[in-house]
Amino acid sequence: MWAVFWCVLKRDLLLAMRRRTDVLTTLFFFMIVVSLFPLGVGTERQVLQILGPGVVWVAALLASMLALERLFAADYEDGTLEQMLLTAQPLSLLVLAKVGAHWLLTGLPLVLIAPLVGMQYHLSDAQIGIMMLSLLLGTPILSLIGAIGAALTLGLRGGGILLSLLILPLYIPVLVYGSGAIEVSVIDLSDTMPYLSLLGAFLLAALTLAPLASAAALKISLE
Amino acid sequence: MTLNWFKFASPATFYPLAGRLTRPFWILTGVLLVIGLYWGFFQTADQLGGSNPQKEYYRIIFIHVPAAWMSMWLYIVLVFWAAIGLVFNTRLSFMMANAVAPTGAVFTFLALWTGAFWGRPSWGTYWDWDPRLTSELVLFFLYIGYMALHSAIDDTRRADRASALLALVGLVMVPVIYWSINCPDPTQCAALHQRSGLGKIESNILFSMLTMTLAFWMYSFATSFMRLRSIILTREAEASWVQELLNREHSR
Amino acid sequence: MSDFFSQGGYAFFVWGAYGMVVLVLVAEVLQLRLQHRTILARLGRLARLSQSSRPE
């Protein structure tokens, strides 16, 4: 059963590697949004240190949102998705593989580029570490929940903007605890534990439930 | 005698039934509104003392709390019908969910509006990022999302099922969202709203508030049935019973 | 009577809240009635159209 998982994962990664611009667009979108804030609110050190965690997380939310539209779109257009529906393998496993590949391409780069953002906002090294950790735990949740929305809006006109309307409210818990973890890390690093454990718990819950919901949504959209 | 519930699950049977039920619900709404408002404005003290002194503006409670309760209750009703529709594949349940959604959104909006008008004299600000107000705002977004998704999909069957699934996912997420807004710091939770039990409220105020809640509830029944009739007509326009109905109306 | 309308000086807030409730609820009901009538009229027109076009 896991052979199928790896097969889909490798295939999606390979396809993405052939069209690298898609991956880079998300990353640069994230960078641009993050860089625009200091221009809008002023470049004072203290202001940026306060705003930093929230800005990073909101930008991550928007970036992962932007990338979601393409999660199933290509496979939907060339009919691969319908073939996947017909296989004997559980659809939720295939969805999980696709979401995994999607996260590796759009979520992981955000985690890796986070130190750069941290420097832009004058965050301390410890804060940057916590930021990377919280993004590492949080961005997969965004991809998993977002996949439900992507499956529901499959092939609709103006699907992208609709998708954000449906999914952004559901991102609130991740946003609250993700940026919360970075904020409290200023005071005491051990204070971040409850935040990170909560994000971890959300991740586990999303890993088990979201693929099932996405699979159900795909079946509804394709029947 | 066992009642066959599935008989009412047919739009053709439910259409006239909903029509007959609308008027009694309107009458109930009117009576309860008059009692609730009279009691709220003339049988309660003008000013409240105690630990949370309030002046006349506390009378917004008679619409604010019922609207907030109804907005949450109607979302549960919406998800209930959506789930029934997904499980039993009954067309009427989806229509029911559809008919409830706009009324729910209306009450959510009213809860926010009246909350702002109560917050200004009471807290000194129209809006505060108070957990309950924020949750209400999120609930409003969920209603809007449900209706937007439904209207974006042309195929009725897909629209019904997709938005039903979205509503279900929303219901699962609501406690988590509420909790995260309520306790941004996981180790301690604070809220502007007072945590007061219903038993602590003065009995005249409580009476008026509950009466108004019932009135809003009856109002929701009435409007949902009216909307349901419109939805049934549009969707079943080709059915023979609609044609007969039209002929009867026309010949009258 | 004017006491009732002034609500101890908080008329704007009390009536602002109640006014919006009345406005929105009445608007919803009117919209529903209009919608129902429009649908009935449209379906009626369609039915008559198909009857008149049917060969006698």
UniProtKB/TrEMBL annotation, chain A:
Q: MF terms per GO, please? A: heme transmembrane transporter activity
Lineage top rank: taxon: Bacteria
Transmembrane regions = 21-41, 47-72, 93-116, 128-154, 161-182, 194-218
Keywords, sorted A to Z: Cell inner membrane, Cell membrane, Cytochrome c-type biogenesis, Membrane, Transmembrane, Transmembrane helix, Transport
Its topology with respect to the membrane?
Multi-pass membrane protein
* Record GO biological process: cytochrome c biosynthetic process; cytochrome complex assembly
Carries keyword Ribosomal protein?
no
Q: What is its main location?
A: membrane
Enumerate the subcellular locations listed in this protein's record, separating them with semicolons: Cell inner membrane
Is Cell membrane one of the keywords UniProt gives this record?
Answer: yes
Give an example GO cellular component term for this record: plasma membrane
Which Pfam families does this chain map to? Answer: CcmB
Q: What does this protein do?
A: Required for the export of heme to the periplasm for the biogenesis of c-type cytochromes.
What the record says about family reads: Belongs to the CcmB/CycW/HelB family.
Its protein name is Heme exporter protein B
The scientific name of the source species is: Allochromatium humboldtianum
Automatic annotation (TrEMBL), chain B:
Instruction: Provide the protein's localization.
Output: Membrane
Q: Where mainly located?
A: membrane
Q: Does the record bear Hydrolase in its keywords?
A: no
Q: Which residues cross the membrane?
A: 21-41, 61-88, 95-113, 133-152, 164-181, 201-222
Task: List GO molecular-function terms, semicolon-separated.
Answer: heme binding; heme transmembrane transporter activity
Entry keyword set: Cytochrome c-type biogenesis, Membrane, Transmembrane, Transmembrane helix
Q: Which GO terms describe its cellular component?
A: plasma membrane
Q: Which ranges carry the Cytochrome c assembly protein domain? A: 26-182
**Pfam families tied to this protein:** Cytochrom_C_asm (PF01578)
What PANTHER family would the database entry show? CYTOCHROME B_B6 PROTEIN-RELATED, HEME EXPORTER PROTEIN C
General function of this protein: Required for the export of heme to the periplasm for the biogenesis of c-type cytochromes.
Q: What is this protein called?
A: Heme exporter protein C
Native organism: Allochromatium humboldtianum
UniProtKB/TrEMBL annotation, chain C:
Tell me where on the tree of life, at the top rank, the source sits.
Bacteria
A GO cellular component entry from the record: plasma membrane
Q: Taking the first listed entry, what is the main subcellular location of this protein, grouped into a coarse class?
A: membrane
Q: Name one GO biological process term.
A: cytochrome complex assembly
Keyword match Electron transport: no
Record-linked InterPro entries:
Haem_export_protD_CcmD, Heme_exporter_D
Q: Cross-referenced Pfam families, in alphabetical order?
A: CcmD (PF04995)
The keyword Cell membrane is annotated on this UniProt entry: yes
**Which compartments does it reside in?**
Cell inner membrane
Write down the membrane topology. Answer: Single-pass membrane protein
Q: Which UniProt keywords apply?
A: Cell inner membrane, Cell membrane, Cytochrome c-type biogenesis, Membrane, Transmembrane, Transmembrane helix, Transport
Q: Which residues cross the membrane?
A: 12-32
Function of the molecule: Required for the export of heme to the periplasm for the biogenesis of c-type cytochromes.
Family that this chain belongs to = Belongs to the CcmD/CycX/HelD family.
Q: PANTHER family, per this entry?
A: HEME EXPORTER PROTEIN D
Record-given protein name: Heme exporter protein D
Source species, please?
A: Allochromatium humboldtianum
- Gene encoding it? ccmD
